[in-house]
Amino acid sequence: MKIWIFNHYAAPPDCAAGTRHYDLGRAMVAAGHEVTVFASSFSHFSRREERLTHGEKTAVRDVDGVRFLWVRTPPYAGNGYRRFLNMCSYAARVLPAQQDLERPDVIVGSCVHPAAVLAAWLAARRRGARFVVEVRDLWPQTLIDMGALRAGGIPARVLRLVESFCYRRASAVICLLPGAAGYLKARGVPPDRIHYVPNGISDHPPSADDGPSPTPTLQDHGQHVTELIDRIRRLRTQGCLTAGYVGSHGPANALDTIVSAAARLHDAGQPRVAVVLVGDGPEKAACQRLADELGLDNVLFWPPVPKSAVPAVLAELDVTLFCLRDVAVFRYGLSSNKLFDYLACGKPVLFASNAPGGPVRQSGGGVCVPAESPAAVAEALTTLAAMSRTQRQQIGQRGRTWVYRHHGTTALASAFLTAVAQPAGQGPANDRAEAPR
Question: How far apart are CA 212 and CA 215, in angstroms?
């Protein structure tokens, strides 16, 4: 089967970005399928051009058997109108970029934003392919619940129409959120077209017999990654419990909660806890200002690291941090890449969120506290610091065992294939044209 995936922000693990479709693609290629991922060459995470040389508009690269087709999109910073133009540019440029390729069997539109899904539908209609929607973020519900859009406003109403339009025309809807089925049914998606395929991790954990991981070198990860690892090691030798976050610094991530918790620990003097925040995003500058205003010397901010370097960074931490705002949309659950990476590294996860269920609670691989509560986060870090290293390792091992058992890539890729292979039914839900002759 020839599978195309339209994901604006997709990437292989050589940069700081989500690798869901690279990981699933590798497993599907190993099963005999062809996978092409259409992505922007401008990184949403580093805010720079990463894939194309001067003058190039598109490029095709084979990455471990997965074909990536990069399209140039204009730069932006923050969440202003330039980001909106970047989204529209992706949708406009990805359509002509695929015209010379052999017709696929199915095209998946991944809803990191609706423009990518609309482009996938249009390409599927033109090429006579099945059209599948992958729901990652609930547009516009997430924006409404975050307060960025007014529920009855024109932008929200337009996005609702786009959402319903795409759902009606999809042969299948893949959702990453465990509780999203009820939302999708309310939007008119038949239950038999809904497929739950969450994020996951590589199938094979390193064996304990393999011994300790080799010391990272400049060649392995790059200088700024090695410097970060050295800084974490120094903090640990100074007697600090190191608690780290690796990922986007966005409005939903509530990293000001972590900074405020660090302030409580700093003022108390004991235990000695150092917080390490790795990544970038629109809220990073505000968090840095807050740390400066509070006079904190126990918070380390660091630029993004490539996805391939994340395990090496996590291996140096004592505790991993995951936090979210208390926003209504999270009642549908979570499927965060970083959360599975945290569990896979075998370190306890401090989970500060009001989202129901979730892998940390299910696995017992960490400590769960309410969202947006610096006091609760500080108390949990104090509890973890009071534990022995062996006790923390036991908690981390529970999470690690669970995530490899339930979220291996091969099983998830099989579920993904089942969804995209679903035959198109009758009626408006599968508004597709005949293949060009």
Answer: 9
Residue 271: is the preceding peptide bond cis (ω within 30°)?
A: yes
pLDDT digits (tens, 9 = 90+) for 300-315: 999 999 988 999 999 9
Among 178, 139, 150, 136, CA closest to 5: 136
Nearest one of 284, 370, 261 to 46, comparing CA atoms: 284
With a CB cutoff of 8 Å and minimum separation 6, the contacts of 327 are 142, 145, 146, 252
Q: How far apart (Å, rounded) are the C-alpha atoms in residues 314 and 145? A: 31
- Euclidean distance between CA atoms 241 and 271, whole angstroms: 8
CA 101 from chain centre, in angstroms, equals: 28
Q: How many CB atoms lie within 10 A of CB 162?
A: 17
Least Cα distance to 51 among 4, 9, 104, 79 occurs for 9
Separation between Cα atoms, residue 391 and residue 396, nearest integer Å: 9
Torsion-angle region of residue 229: left (phi > 0), alpha (psi -120 to 50) or beta? alpha
DSSP element (H, E) containing 379: helix 374-386
Q: How far apart are CA 393 and CA 389, in angstroms?
A: 6
| Region label for 39, one of left (φ > 0), alpha (ψ between -120 and 50) or beta (otherwise) | beta
Element (H, E) at 39: strand 34-40
pTM of the model: 0.84
| pLDDT 10s digits, 368-384 | 999 999 999 999 999 99
Contacts of 210 (CB under 8 A, 6+ apart): none
Structure tokens that stand for 151 in this block: 């529920």
